[in-house]
Design brief:
Protein name: Cytochrome P450
GO molecular function, one term: arachidonate epoxygenase activity
Pfam family, one: p450
Structural class: alpha+beta
Cofactor: heme
Distance between the termini: 74 Å
Strand content: 5-15%
Shape: globular
Order of helices and strands: HHEEHEHHHHHHHHHHHHEEEEHHEEEE
Low-confidence stretches: 1-25
Membrane topology: Peripheral membrane protein
Largest sheet: 5 strands, mixed
Strand order of the largest sheet: 1-2-7-4-3
Length: 491
Amino acid sequence: MEPSVLLLFALLVGFVLLLVRGYPKARGHLPPGPRPLPLLGNLLQMDRGGFHNSFRRIREKYGDVFTVYLGPRPVVMLYGTEAIREALVDQAEAFSGRAPVAVVKPVFRDYGVIFSNGERWKALRRFSLATMRDFGMGKRSVEERIQEEAQCLVEEFRKSQGAPLDPTFLFQSITANIICSIVFGERFDYKDRQFLRLLNLIYQTFSLSSSFSSQVFEFFASFLKYLPGAHRQIFRNLQEVLNYIGQSVKKHQATLDPSHPRDFIDTYLLRMEKEKSNQHTEFHHENLLISVLSLFFAGTETSSTTLRYGFLLMLKYPHVAEKVQKEIDQVIGSHRLPSLDDRTKMPYTDAVIHEIQRFSDLIPVGVPHKVIKDTLFRGYLLPKNTEVYPILSSALHDPQYFEQPDTFNPDHFLDAKGALKKSEAFMPFSLGKRMCLGEGIARNELFLFFTTILQNFSVSSPVAPKDIDLSPKESGFGTVPPKYQICFLAR
């Protein structure tokens, strides 16, 4: 019998057996949810517009904590501000595990600072936070790096002389250069071919990971991984980025000065040397490559995508951009660089940036968690290793905290006196022990890049504001804004 025929026969037999036996019951006492079908799980309840749209409908019937079957495996969904905070903050340790994302698992393989678990994750996170702090995160030196990069961007925009352009790769370039200066110890010219290739690979990977096909892959990865699809392109893309990182590590090894570490890679190599006699150390080559990939990918794509959405919103709502520029003129003027000290004096601008982050909803379903032990939560027993999705979109669009959750409105973050108003539902970087370790750097980038651009330029679009469509190009693991053209007109 042909292997393909044999495989098809085995699948049909398995399907019939599941129909006869019914769906296997999960251990513990999981929250309620829609009844799954054999093999398919709850696939038929999923919306092509993004699975988080489907979760919204399911929540209306089953409440803030419910179970969805992604193929044969149950995943507990946390919907709304209170449910997410109760899990990730009040029971932070129990929910501190990281579950895989199927389309990138073959590359990350439980290594690195984002997708590892247990002692490996704790050691790498402590090291990464301390090292990034040493090389600028949270210190004035990173402010200076962002200011310098912002001026390079201003010069690049001036060259366009107000002609329409696609800002995608320029916004990627500035955010990538900040993380590159910390990780690789260098910045790249905006026309550097190798740099542009890496940025294109990251952009393409983020878009493919957020596609509907990648969401379906999450259901049936064990079977679909053998077939053609987006997952194969994602693997090739990330392998090419890893190859570049590997070459950079070799150059660092050849030029390493133990008394003067230049960046994250140098510092990691010194730690590797220090622990080379420890056979249980987590500081080895594989964790170095995947940690650098994690930092480079996250540090580039998140802030640049937020900026892309932010300026699309400024084109859609020009009166908001004008109010920001008025505040810039009053507080900063035109003859000095914006600084982080200005942020507390610019509540409207700060509120606009918060609202851009809320509205752009960058990682709608959050990066998957899992419980690291049997966990009692809201009367349900979640067995150890149960996957948990904190639906961040549900907090960022929580009507209990935001009066018009589906509308862009900076007043969501302003009190009656015009001061910045904090909100417990604002969690674009997630919460708890797995909170994004680059939050500080991202917040600084968004403020300094946003204000520097609007200090120097007014923005306009070839398309009338009323005709600008804010609908995302993709909405799955991440939210990818639509492509657009923008004109930067010198003020």
